[in-house]
Amino acid sequence: MILDLFAGPGGWSRALHVLGVRDVGLEWDPWACRTRAAAGQVTIRCDVARYPAWPFLGRTRGVIGSPPCQAWSMAGKRLGLLDQPLVHAAVADLAAGRDTRARLLAACRDERSLLAAEPMRYLYALNTVGEPDWVAMEEVPDVLPLWRQYAAVLRGWGFSAWCGILNAADFGVPQTRRRAILLASRVRTAQPPAPTHSQLAEPESLFGPGRARWVSMAEALGWGATDRPVPTVCAGGGPGGGPEPFPSGSRKTLSDARERGTWVPRPDGVVLPSRREGAGWAARHGTRNNRPAEAHRWSWSLRSNNQANATIRPLDEPAGTLFFGHRANECTWVAEPATPSATAAGTNAPAVPEPIRITAREAGLLQTFPADYPWAGNKGQVFGQIGNAVPPLLAGHLLAPHLNVTLAPDDFTLAA
What we know:
This protein is an alpha/beta fold and 416 residues long. The chain has a domain at 2-212 and 390-403: 3-Layer(aba) Sandwich (Rossmann fold). Helices cover 24% and strands 15% of the residues. The protein has helices spanning 11-18, 30-38, 79-95, 101-107, 118-127, 144-156, 217-221, 280-285, 360-366, 379-388, 392-399; strands spanning 2-5, 24-27, 42-45, 62-65, 134-139, 160-167, 178-185, 197-198, 212-213, 232-233, 252-253, 298-303, 312-314, 332-337, 356-357. The strands form four sheets. The chain has a seven-stranded mixed beta sheet, sandwiched between helices. Strand 1 (2-5), helix 1 and strand 2 form a beta-alpha-beta unit. It is globular, with a radius of gyration of 23 Å.
């Protein structure tokens, strides 16, 4: 079997499915487990830190590990960086067969930090029976020093090992998501996959095959470069969507009332107050009585969060790293006039459309999940799963060599 520790909603599993293989995922989050079940993935719901390794001895071909990144991510408090010496100590002890996790965990500032050491507990147990054949691990860039420690241990056990930082955009993912990767193998030289894309297209030459230009959000979503996203609004919700008062699937779209690629204002006098902002929204933004009836074209970009230093990328580029978890990390589509005529002064000048929250379908596509991937849970639970997942397309490039499978360009369909 292939053992997938901290399996999440199935980023690695989706890649393995495309490559014609299945894994057994260990996952604690109930909604991620429901997503995996709906996607037909084999899952053991458990605490990875408490589940024994002995059931997998003598039957494990590969081990995958993507420990939770919240303790290390730039989107959080990053207490994992302060706990890093304790995590290194835990890895060293587990690699020698000593379990000091309880003592070290008591000293951690974030209890999730020590989860990054858990794969070593499984690897040590499996190594006693000469398993696995290969290992693939993924985390945020700040975990790279820990992966170097893992690599040194694995080399001592007879593995070839490589670790480094890879940009998902270099492998066709419409997102410049940088991740620390560890690859190790007993049966082949461990090395990173060859990039298939680059920021600028590179023609084929005597020095090697060419590389396509990075995949843009517009390409992945099936939009033209100036198309607006399809805005969504809940009953009573605001122009940005607002908190969702109904179960997933109950939201109504405004796409029937607006031509794709243009912005057609609502009829005069119509105000859609935000449930999040309350009645003060109308006072701040007005009632749009002066908006013209004709359509105007806008250029749309994706803003990665609500903070002042948020990454903002136009549709003809890949997204920045998608991460979710709290309101400050909400991704929104923002607009600006695409033509000089749209900025003309006077009473007939069009008002800039309000930001529109990204939908789960759009976020999933930007992570290279299928458009119909069966996400389970409410909006917050679904976005949390999407943000924490490994992009399946990146995972496919990492896993294909270990499985002796060639990844075809059309194996992952991005646009619906």
